[in-house]
Specification:
Blueprint (H helix, E strand, L loop, with lengths): L1 H35 L5 H32 L5 E9 L11 H4 L10 E2 L7 H31 L6 H24 L3 E2 L3 H39 L9 H41 L3 E4 L9 H9 L6 H26 L11 H26 L3 E2 L6 H26 L7 H27 L2 E2 L3 H6 L3 H27 L2 H7 L1 H32 L9 E5 L1
Helix pairs in contact: 1-2, 1-6, 2-5, 2-6, 4-5, 4-7, 6-7, 6-16, 7-11, 7-16, 9-10, 9-14, 10-12, 10-14, 11-12, 11-16, 12-16, 14-16, 15-16
Length: 544
């Protein structure tokens, strides 16, 4: 019987892998054909929309089933089972459930569904809410545009396109609720169905990521082509098309700021779903010990001492933030004047100078943090896989984007143009800073105060506070200004071509933005956790 279940678990993992590869291949091929094929694209667009509809509806049905199963089948009143340690069962295969595991081994109770998984940090949960709001607003703008196009007869919009937009909006809302509330869920019943459901949710988010990178790149490319072909040609708008033109203008202006939210949201959601997929079939060992709950006195004392040994870093961070806001204001003023003679290049000087200043401040802060935190105790156990995956994903995006920029600038550095030299310096600093900061986050996540002297002195905490604020400043800069600065620099398009450069920027800039947000979240966790004396960590399991 055990071998039979082991074989079933192995087959389910293999089939899930094949299914994910097939769907991911379709998610890459269909949007590419629809976006860049020669001739009429209506049929390919229909295929893509039908594929999207399949992804969204299947995901929604599974989420609703899972939520109905949790609420209906199990007691809706949460019963605390104390502190537990999650343990993966090795006999018979990965996460496999065997007959011996399903018995009351060492007094453990098999829970069909429980909330004892690793989950994500509270900062990432807030990030999911933030990015989902941006995603919903982005989809809402497009749905409004479709509605006005239908009413004003500006363009033929199929009912399928509107349906896909509405279903995508519904999927985003339901998935956000699930990730925020059930990110620690572990399913121990109907294992094959559970694995297929969660792998489908993961692949759906990855396909959305690919779809939006391709669609946004093609839209920008064809918009540039239309602008070039229609230069010098006057266009008359009647009253029926004024509403369409207005909402299209709003959507186009908001897209550079909202579109990265879609990609960042789907990166986090895909990572969470893959983690839940890996925990399917994991059983808790129930212990009698209750988790410690801090008293009101302890909570207030912790708040009063929360910024201890961080004042210098916080005030230096405030200075960096003020300079960043002033520089951004100057940048946007000069950018608005970029169409006039003599202003084509001036707006890049304050932008690149601001980037160099913030990168230098963060580079100094991260070096000081690593140096001072080296004396803290080093824990051998590895922390959550979701955070590591997300950090490496953002780091990869930062490397790829900056390497492409650096290669293009090295081809023209001989011109000794001021803006190009400043951009090359900021690119070089960005690669170094990302490398050291990623190492600092991985290393700092395992650091813990070892004695009373460390608790009192809190080495490196002030530098961590400065580094945290610098990453928030870089997140604001890269969200508001990086895409504009890159798209209006002709050096990159001259080397790579218009379309390849659009694809590079649309794929890497959201990852760079996400890297800064996720780094700030991880640094905040290190800043608050590394200086607390080590205690026996307990994970609370909740039966639904």
């Amino acid at each position: 019987m055990a071998n039979r279940k082991s074989k079933g678990n192995s087959w389910s993992h293999q089939l899930c892998s094949l299914y994910s590869l097939l769907v991911l291949s379709l998610g890459l091929a269909l949007p590419l054909v629809a976006a860049f094929q020669n001739g009429p694209a209506s049929q390919s667009v229909i295929y893509t929309k039908v594929f999207e509809l399949y992804l969204y509806t299947t995901a929604i049905l599974y989420l609703l089933y899972l939520h109905w199963y949790l609420i209906r089948v199990h007691d809706p009143k949460r019963k605390q089972h104390g502190a537990v340690a999650i343990q993966k069962l090795r006999p018979g295969g990965e996460n496999g459930l065997t007959d011996s595991a399903e018995t009351d081994n060492q007094g453990a109770t098999t829970l069909p569904v429980h909330l004892g998984g690793r989950g994500i940090s509270v900062y990432l949960r807030y990030g999911v809410i933030l990015f989902s709001i941006g995603t919903i607003i982005y989809i809402g703008f497009h749905l409004t545009e479709f509605a006005l196009e239908i009413v004003g007869r500006c363009k033929d919009v199929s009912a399928l396109t509107v349906t896909v937009g509405v279903v995508h909006l519904l999927f985003t809302f339901i998935q956000t609720f699930f990730v925020f509330k059930y990110h620690t869920i572990v399913v121990n019943k109907h294992l094959v169905f559970a694995r297929f459901g969660f792998i489908h949710l993961m692949i759906t988010n990855l396909c959305i990521w690919l779809l939006y990178v391709i669609v946004e790149s093609s839209d920008d490319f064809f918009d540039d082509s239309k602008t070039t072909n229609s230069s010098g040609t006057a266009t008359n708008h009647n009253d029926d098309t004024l509403g369409c033109t207005a909402i299209m203008s709003i959507t186009e202006r908001a897209s550079p700021y909202l579109y990265p939210c879609v990609l960042e949201y789907n990166i986090i959601a895909a990572a969470v779903m893959y983690t839940i997929y890996n925990t399917v079939g994991t059983l808790p060992n129930i212990s009698e010990k209750k988790p410690h709950k801090p008293s009101i006195h302890e909570t207030m004392d912790g708040v009063s001492k929360g910024c201890d040994k961080s004042n210098v870093g916080l005030f230096l961070g405030m200075l960096v933030a003020i300079i960043t806001l002033i520089s951004l204001s100057i940048y946007f003023v000069l950018f608005a004047e970029a169409g006039r003679d003599g202003y084509q290049w001036l707006y890049l000087i304050p932008f690149e100078s601001m980037m160099i200043f913030v990168l230098m401040a963060s580079l100094i802060a991260v070096i000081v943090s690593v140096w001072k935190m080296r004396i803290l105790d080093y824990r051998q156990e590895q922390d959550g896989g979701v955070s590591v995956f997300l950090m490496l994903t953002g780091t990869l995006g930062g490397y790829i984007g900056n390497i492409f920029v650096g290669i293009a600038l090295l081809h023209v550095v001989y011109t000794m143009d001021t803006t190009l030299i400043l951009t090359l310096i900021s690119t070089f600093l960005s690669v170094i800073q990302i490398t050291i900061q990623t190492f600092c986050i991985f290393d700092g996540g395992r650091r813990q105060v070892a004695d009373t002297n460390h608790v009192i002195q809190k080495p490196g905490r002030s530098a961590l506070a400065l580094l945290l604020i610098c990453n928030l400043c870089l997140w604001v800069i890269e969200t508001l200004a990086v895409k504009k600065a890159f798209e209006h620099t002709t050096v990159f398009e001259d080397l790579y071509g218009n379309l390849p450069w659009k694809i590079i920027t649309h794929a890497t800039i959201p990852l760079i933005i996400f890297y800064r947000f996720h780094s700030a979240a991880e640094l905040s966790g290190i800043w608050s956790r590394a200086y607390v004396p080590k205690v026996i960590e307990q994970v609370e399991v909740t039966k639904l």
